[in-house]
Amino acid sequence: MLEFALDARRGAFHLEISCRLTAEWTVIFGHSGAGKSTLLRLLAGLDRPDNGRIAFGGTILTDIAARLFMAPGRRGCAFVTQQPALFPHMNVRSNVVYGVRPRNNLREWMGRVDEALALVGASDLHDRYPRDLSGGEAQRVAVARAIAVRPKLLLLDEPFSALDGPAADALLDRLQVWLRNNGVQTVMATHEAADAFALGAEVALLQDGRLAALGPPQEVLAQERERITSRLSNRAVRLK
């Protein structure tokens, strides 16, 4: 379970949100500027709130009042941002290996890497360097690097924006099964309502830095679905 109460001002923007997430997969939905990336950075420990608290699985990660702030590397969390942020001087395999510190033998160590690359459909890329990858390939590798460390909490910030619809859906299907089997709680930020419906995930609707609603997509995104349906209908009429 992930729970947080956060207050963070970033210039004119003010994020003020309190929430408890218990689902295995939660979609943070909101349009540009709603505060999705800011929230994920705070949860990952890449940024500090002005005030507030974060706890995951009963462990306090951030508590400003108590002057407690756990470093990102100790949170049992992996974060995939919109930009893959791969190390340019390392090939794909070395990028995925980075951060993996298994207690057992080298065979298991490399097995994790191979499993992660196979899961995201990037097994044939292991010797290539980031400069030789397409945007979609780089995003696949970034996801592989995140899951190879076997996190307890996975944070995804629109990580499949460079993949076309069918490729992104196929990857999400495989990833969802793997994460469920490995007991990983996942929080994914997106502005694509289709992602929430496809995943059957709990949805947290973020508007102007505030939590507007939390629940199943059929309820939380009812207005968004109507808006999309209306837009498609109007476009079909114009094309006739």
UniProtKB/TrEMBL annotation:
InterPro entries: AAA+_ATPase (IPR003593), ABC_SmlMolc_Importer (IPR050093), ABC_transporter-like_ATP-bd (IPR003439), ABC_transporter-like_CS (IPR017871), P-loop_NTPase (IPR027417). The keyword Metal-binding does not apply. GO terms for molecular function: ATP binding; ATP hydrolysis activity. SUPFAM superfamilies: P-loop containing nucleoside triphosphate hydrolases. It comes from Occallatibacter riparius. Residues 1-233 form the ABC transporter domain. This is ATP-binding cassette domain-containing protein. Keywords: ATP-binding, Nucleotide-binding, Transport. The keyword Transport applies. Coiled coil: none annotated.
